[in-house]
Amino acid sequence: MAGLFWLIPLIPGASALALLLAGAKLPRKWAAAQASGAVLLSFVLSLAAFLRLSGGGPDVPALSKTLLSWIASGSFTASITFQFDELSAVMALVVTGVGFLIHVYSAAYMAGDKAYSRYFAFLNLFMFFMLVLVMASGIVLMFVGWEGVGLCSYLLIGFWFERPAASKAGLKAFVVNRVGDAAFIVGILFILAHVGSPEFAAINAASASGLLAPGLVTLVAVLLFAGATGKSAQIPLHVWLPDAMEGPTPVSALIHAATMVTAGVYMVCRLNGLYAASVPASSVVAWVGGVTAVFAATIALVQNDIKRVLAYSTISQIGYMFLGCGVGAYAAGMFHLVTHAFFKSLLFLAAGSVIHALGGGQDMRRMGGLRKYLPVTFPVFLTGALAISGVPFLSGFFSKDAILTSAYAGGHHVLYALGLLGAVLTALYMFRLIYLTFYGEERFEPGPGRHIHESPPAMTVPLVVLAVFSVLAGYIGLPVFFGAKADRFGRFLESVLKAPAGHPSLPAEALLVLAATASALLGIFLAFVLYKRNPEIPPRLAYRFPGLYRLLVGKYRVDEAYDALFIRPLVRGSETVYARFDLKVVDGVLNGSAAATGMAGKGLNILQTGLIRDYALAFVLGVVVFLGVLLL
Amino acid sequence: MIPTAAFLALAALLFALGVLAFFVKKDLLTQFMAVEIMLNAGNLAFLALARSLGKPDGQAVVLFVITAAAAEAVVGLAIIVLVFRRRKAVRTDDLKELRG
Amino acid sequence: MAWIVFIVLSVLCVGSVAAMILSRNAAHNALFLVLAFAALGGLFGLLDAPFAAAVQVLVYAGAIMVLFLFALMMFDLRRPAPPDKPGFRLALTLVLALVLLGEIALALARLVRGGGGPGGAPGHDVGRLGALLFTDYLYAFEITSLLILAALVGALALAGKKEGA
User: Which residue of chain B comes nearest to C102, CA vs CA?
Assistant: First the structure.
């Protein structure tokens, strides 16, 4: 069964095609069942392949299958080859596992929507592309998946396209991604020109062996990372993710929390040979990740829309993942990717449950006191919040700690400090959310006592499953002081992702763990003070520091800056070109040729006098010319 | 014996005159006569060459041409008569239905 | 001797045609043409083609032109057509006619140069012409007779008695 691993992307793909073509004619329950079943099937296949890989020792070869030879142009060839190694296994399991849970959740969440089968078609299509992305053996095929998930993101963000906000958000996501992808493509071209092959193995080997000049390695790594900032919503291309919350909440959970946005992290890990070979590029990765982590966390502090808080939280957490990769702890970055997939999708789906219960309200200023109405949603939400804050013994604690430890051990003390600050802020904004939503007075309309009900089991069961994983997933990657063999996750990935060199001593490690715990608890305590015990403080702070407050609420004005610097000039330029060139020249040529033809016709019309004499004259003229030609 | 060239020159001149006549005249009937002139010029040429080549084939052709010209004149005149009946005048410039 | 006849007949022919061009009276045109055809008949005779000469006078001058005159009789000829404004058309026509003349002359000159032929006097042999007509050109001969028949019928059908004309 592991040999069928290459079907993993294709099964959802086939389901997507079927739903796209015939979905409208199928009954709703069937569409949901087929879509979810396809993903479940892929999950089972992934599991089988994973077991095969983990069953043998570290020398089990990766599974690989070439489906067809795709491009053969001159000396450049690319084939559609799927591979399944340890890294792909991790990604595939996360994508299909979490994806399946979200499909089930969606079946209930989207029950009232009129475009039900279109939703599932797109969701399946997304699964197809994402799985192609993680199972590609070469960067060109991966880019196909990369673009494909971008397309599906656009389709799903703008799913309710009748709403102008949703359409614009979808467009914004696609365009911003495009900017990143432009850099990505240039990177690919450099690779193809200098390495000659798109295969990852070749690229990593070429970087390590010194085949590529160091400057080139840095350039390519930075270009590819620029693409990753778009896809993974890091500075400076993070602006699309908060707007993407216009899409349905399960979409936010799947695409913009667990899978698509982590594609950038996967790419860096996959090409770790490239990044390890260039210290400047790795620094860029780490610093962008670290700064973004804090930057986004500060914005999350003042957001009032529950989904926006989670969106900025995602941006922040992915920053952590890049930080980990940037300091060489690729396995730690992947570890956080996995745990984050669980608790972030849990948080999004639980938020969806809250929104569903309130009949669509997303503003936290109109929530409060929901604890007693949502007996399942509240505990799981709390679990997720604890996990993300890095409270000990939950998964987030272990993964975040792994990253911070590696940062410190690698000597990147400033980055470590940033990470620690981010951890405080994370706990702070998360528990702010918890207190505003579930505690305190009930501020929603029409007022207390309104009939708020818990969500149906189709929604709550996945929540519980994810909560369980959010707790337990950490135990696959325990820090070293539990024993050298405790980091099963890292060891599993060892053949693909080399462990970082630096390693802290046992006492140092204990101190670091303590520091992480302290920062989490500090954040929770601050939230408690500001939002539960003395809720009058935040408004007073906003009053005392209006400039800072406005800056944070306005998201540091990045969107406005982009609008002024890029968008408006472009639009003005296009309008000018349109008026000067398109209307005058292009239309002018067309209309001109039509007019010319008309004039020619009118001109020739003069010859048609109707007089026999003139026609006879033409005859004679013809004869004269003809004779002349014959004679001369 | 008169050289063939002389006859041929005469034939050429007659043909050109026929063309001129066709364009100068205004009424259909006279234009038709100009056509006859041209035909005759051709006949002259044929006979001149027949004599110079020593074969009577040219004369046979001339015979046919004259016959065809006669038939043509008959039909053409019938048409002209019809036109005249309709319009009471045969000024060629009045027949302008083909004007574009 | 033959030269004098030739020149006289030629002048007569060309002169008649020129007069026909210059005259505005349609009946005069027709009569001038008769004269021209007669002269041509004489010229045919000079070319050792007696049969052709006879046919020319009989058919062309005698029958066709008479037909023309009949047709003329039906028309009102009292109003001669106004002269053409000396304009573009006239100039173009003159030019074209001249060029045409030149070209034809050139063509014929080349023809003559490339083999004048042995000459001889085959023309007197009408019998030979007759034999030719009934052997090599038999089809053309028969079809020509059909042509005349068709023309006859056509003319009748076209202009036959209708509204009491």
Answer: B12
How far does Cα A214 stand from its chain's mean position?
Answer: 30
Which residue type is seen at A377?
Answer: T
Give the CA distances from residue A200 to residues A50, A118, A138, A239, A499, in Å, rounded to whole numbers and listed in that order: 20, 35, 5, 30, 19
Cβ of B91 within 8 Å of Cβ of C81? The answer is yes
Q: Cβ distance A383 to A255 under 8 Å?
A: no
Cα–Cα distance measured from residue A164 to residue A167, given in angstroms and rounded to the nearest whole number: 5
Of residues C88 and A234, more confidence is placed in A234
Identify the residue whose tokens are 């940033």. Answer: A418
Question: What are the C-alpha distances in Å from B3 to residues A194, B8, C6, C104?
Answer: 90, 9, 11, 17
Minimum mean pLDDT range among A157-166, A206-215, A508-517, C80-89: C80-89
For B31, list phi and psi in degrees, rounded to 5: -65, -35
Whether residue A593 is predicted with pLDDT greater than 50 in this model: the reply is yes
The structure tokens 């033809």 sit at: A597
Distance of alpha carbon A466 from alpha carbon C39, whole angstroms = 122
Spatial distance between the Cα atoms of A269 and A331, rounded to a whole number of angstroms: 8
In order, the DSSP letters of B13-28 are: HHHHHHHHHHHH--BH
What's the Cα-to-Cα distance from B99 to each of A90, A219, A606, A614, C29, rounded to whole Å? 85, 75, 9, 11, 29
A·C CB contacts under 8 A? 25
Q: 3-state secondary structure string, A60-74?
A: CCCEEEEEEEEEEEC
Closest CB to A628 among C89, C103, C110: C103
Residue A591, burial from CB neighbour count under 10 angstroms (0-12, 13-18, 19+): exposed
DSSP state of A78: E
Neighbouring chains of C at 3+ CB pairs within 8 Å?
A, B
pLDDT at C8: 93
The span from the CA of A89 to the CA of C107, in Å, is 94
Tokens 């260039």 sit on residue? A278
Q: pLDDT digits over C65-101, tens only? A: 999 988 888 776 555 555 556 667 777 778 888 888 8
Read off the tokens for A26: 């199928």
Structure tokens at A311: 């969106």
DSSP codes of every residue in A336-403: HHHHHHHHHHHHHHHHHHHHHHTTS--BGGG---GGGT-TTHHHHHHHHHHHHHT-TTSHHHHHHHHH
Backbone angles phi, psi at A70, to 5 degrees: -100, -60
As a whole-number percent, the residues of chain A with pLDDT over 70 amount to 94
CB count in 10 Å sphere of residue A254 = 29
- Closest CA–CA distance from residue C77 to any residue of chain A (Å): 21
Pairwise CA distance, residues A336 & A316, whole Å: 12
Whole-prediction pTM: 0.70
**Which sign, positive or negative, has the C-alpha torsion A281, A287, A292, A297?**
positive
A627 and C96 in contact by Cβ < 8 A? no
Question: At residue A458, what is the residue type?
Answer: A
> What does the alpha-carbon distance between residue A46 and residue A51 come to, in Å, rounded to a whole number?
9
Chain C interface disruption, residue of A620, A626, A629, A630, most C CBs within 10 A = A620
Q: What pLDDT sits at residue C131? A: 84
Helix (H, G, I), strand (E, B) or coil at A138: strand
- What 3-state DSSP class applies to A84? strand
Of A61 and A366, the structure prediction assigns the larger pLDDT to A366
